[in-house]
Every structure is written in C-alpha cells, then in structure tokens.
C-alpha cells in the first residue's frame, strides 16, 4: 500500500493536525511513458497555508480529500520513459505521497553529486530563487546601503541577508529568538540582528541598528514588525514585499498604519512579487546561487525533520518559528 496525506478540512485561523488526513491507497501502476517516483525530501512552506483556504490566489486552492502537494525531490525507481532512467533524481511540484507516477513533464533532473539533494528545495530551489530575484530585481542593492530583512533566520531571509553581504550592504536581520539572532551574526555575517520577541520598541531598535537609515527592506513577515521598519525607511528606499506570515492565519483583514504618508515623503518604492514572475530567468539564478555556494560565499542552513508522518507537523512548526533556514522533511 502507498501512504498519502490529503487535505481533510480547510483551517479557520491557525491550521491543526486534524486538517490533514493520512490515507492508504493502492500502489500506482506504471503506464507507458511514465516513471515511478519514490519521495526522498518534501518542502513545507508558509504559502501552503494560503492554498488550504478556498480563496482565489495566484495558485489554485488544494482540493478537500485530495493529496497535498509542494516541492519534492524524488528518485526514479521504475521507468517507461526514455528521458529518465532508474536512479535519476528529480524535483518538482509533487504530491505528498510516498510513491507516485509522473509523465516526467515539469520535472527537473537534479545532480546529487553537485549538491546535497535537500538543497534543491532550499538554497538551490524555490526559496533561494525567491531571495535572489526579490533582492536583485526589486531591492537593487548597492554597495554601502543598509538592508533590513525580516524572517531573517528562515529559508528566504537567511539567503537574502547573505546575498546582500555579497553586494557589500550593511545587513540587519529580525528574528524571533536569541539563538537565531546569534546565528545571524556569527554564522551568516549579519552586521546586527534584533529579537522581535524581546524588544519593546522595535522602531527605536531598528533606528539604532541602522544609523544611516534603511535603504532596502526585504519583508517576509508583514504586520507590526514591518510598521517599525517602514518608520525608518530612507529617501528612495525599496520595500520588497515577499511574504506576510504574521497575517496568514488571520480571519479578518489586518489593519495598520497607512503607508501612503511615508511612501510619498520618502519617494519610496513598495513592491510585492511572486518568484514565478522570474521563471524565464531561473537558470541564470540557479547558476549564480550554485557558484556562490561552491565558492563558500553562501551557506545553506536546513532544519531536517525525519519521516513521512511528520510532514504536517513540520508545516505547522513554521508558524512557531521552530526552523532555522529551510524546513525540509526527509522521507
Ligand atoms: P521561513 O522563514 O523559513 O519560516 C517561517 C518563519 O517565519 C519562522 O521560522 C518564524 O521565524 C517566522 N514567523 C512565523 N510566524 C511569525 C509571526 N507571526 N511574526 C513574525 N515572524 C513569524 O519561511 P520561508 O519559506 O523562508 O518564507 C518566508 C516568507 O516568504 C513567507 O512569508 C513566505 O510566504 C514568503 N515567500 C514568498 C515567496 C514569493 O514568491 N513571494 C516565495 C517563498 C516564500 P521567527 O522565529 O523569526 O519568528
């Protein structure tokens, strides 16, 4: 039998384990032209929360009682497709199933001798590309500028900060624990880091950590943390709106200070994006990230949880900040 995880119910507010269901199904049978894949690593990501709701977005919602899916690295264990041989590793958007068949369309072969397989879900996958394109295309970092990154110890944030260092910026990170703040400074070379859970006046703390103001704000979390950064933005500053995890479980539209005032006064730019906007440039992004990784200019950090049955809990743990770097489940 084959183990799968389906969406059992649509969460209201914070998702629960009961929103997921473990289902056993018959092992899939291979048809001509198909490959049989064995799941090796599963990515859990904050954006999946949006797809659990029945709301119109840039990706369709998950269907109830159907398998969840996300970024996966899998091994080809049987092949009736000339493009793939047994032992190949592939990555793509695949179901939360231990085994599944595929036509091979929309999958990318990955090389396990070039990088650990899990990296293709992190620094060399969607999150690395998000950091790279969000920062370079919208943030446009210049040597000597100051950047603040929220969610700085997470998958996207930790890569953004490191790339900004490569560009010669002063990098200030915001994260949720003492341990994470230390990691940002000692492991990733951030110039300063702030623990938002223990800092009473975030606006003041950001102003002290950024004596020349904030030229770029790479925002992964939204909410009151962002309000404090916006208050410190410089003239012609760029605000890269990547994510708003602090609001993903809200049941009503969050209210906050209006942004028009400082955007006008500071002639600042605020732009949201989704990584898919840059799909045509992914090969270039991958090449650059791989090069920095091999040169040791970029460090990959992953929190690896083991076991298929722990995929839902690993996803829930993202909202509790239990991960450092990319949260990945090893099967
Ligand atoms: P991640 O940062 O690795 O994990 C989520 C982190 O968010 C947690 O570790 C936690 O860190 C922090 N967090 C959780 N609840 C929070 C809250 N209420 N307030 C402040 N921080 C909170 O996740 P990721 O995959 O790198 O994604 C980061 C953001 O980028 C998400 O908002 C995601 O949706 C977005 N994203 C956007 C794109 C795009 O195309 N635009 C692509 C990928 C990701 P702490 O311990 O520091 O709180």
Please outline the helices and strands.
Elements: E1 2-7, E2 20-25, E3 35-43, H1 48-52, E4 69-79, E5 89-95, E6 99-102, E7 108-110, H2 126-139, E8 146-150, H3 155-166, E9 170-175, H4 178-186, E10 192-195, H5 202-209, E11 214-219, H6 223-230, E12 233-241, H7 260-265, E13 269-272, H8 282-294, E14 302-306, H9 311-317, E15 326-330
Parallel strand pairs: 8-9, 8-11, 9-10, 11-12, 12-13, 14-15
Antiparallel strand pairs: 1-2, 3-4, 3-6, 3-15, 4-5, 5-7
The protein binds NADP nicotinamide-adenine-dinucleotide phosphate (NAP).
NADP nicotinamide-adenine-dinucleotide phosphate (NAP) binds at residues 45-47, 127, 130, 151, 153-157, 175-177, 180, 220-221, 225, 242-246, 273-275, 318-319, 321, 323, 327.
């Amino acid at each position: 039998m084959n183990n799968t995880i389906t969406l059992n119910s649509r969460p209201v507010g914070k998702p629960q384990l009961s929103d997921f269901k473990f289902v056993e199904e018959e092992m899939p049978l291979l048809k001509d032209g198909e490959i049989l894949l064995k799941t090796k690593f599963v990515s859990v990501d904050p954006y999946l929360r949006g797809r659990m709701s029945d709301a119109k977005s840039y990706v369709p919602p998950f269907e109830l009682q159907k398998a969840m899916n996300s970024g996966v690295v899998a091994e080809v264990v049987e092949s009736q497709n000339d493009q793939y041989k047994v032992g190949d590793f592939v990555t793509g958007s695949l179901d939360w199933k231990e085994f599944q068949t595929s036509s091979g369309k929309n999958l990318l072969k990955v090389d396990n001798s070039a990088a650990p397989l899990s990296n293709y879900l992190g620094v060399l996958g969607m999150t690395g590309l998000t950091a790279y394109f969000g920062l370079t295309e919208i943030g446009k970092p210049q040597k000597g500028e100051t950047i603040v990154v929220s969610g700085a110890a997470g998958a996207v944030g930790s890569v953004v900060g490191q790339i900004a260092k490569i560009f010669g910026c002063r990098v200030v990170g915001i994260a949720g624990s003492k341990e994470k703040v230390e990691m940002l400074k000692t492991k990733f070379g951030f110039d300063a880091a702030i623990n938002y859970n223990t800092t009473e006046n975030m606006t003041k703390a950001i102003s002290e950590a950024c004596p020349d103001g904030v030229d770029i704000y790479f925002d992964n979390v939204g909410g009151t943390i962002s309000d404090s950064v916006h208050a410190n933005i410089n003239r012609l500053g760029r605000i890269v709106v990547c994510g708003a995890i602090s609001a993903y479980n809200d049941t009503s539209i969050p209210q906050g200070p209006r942004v028009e005032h400082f955007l006008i006064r500071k002639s600042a730019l605020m732009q949201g994006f989704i990584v898919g906007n840059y799909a045509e440039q992914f090969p270039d992004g991958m090449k650059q990230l791989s090069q920095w990784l091999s040169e040791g200019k970029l460090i990959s950090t992953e929190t690896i949880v083991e076991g298929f049955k722990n995929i839902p809990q690993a996803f829930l743990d993202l909202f509790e900040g239990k991960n450092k770097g990319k949260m990945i489940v090893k099967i």
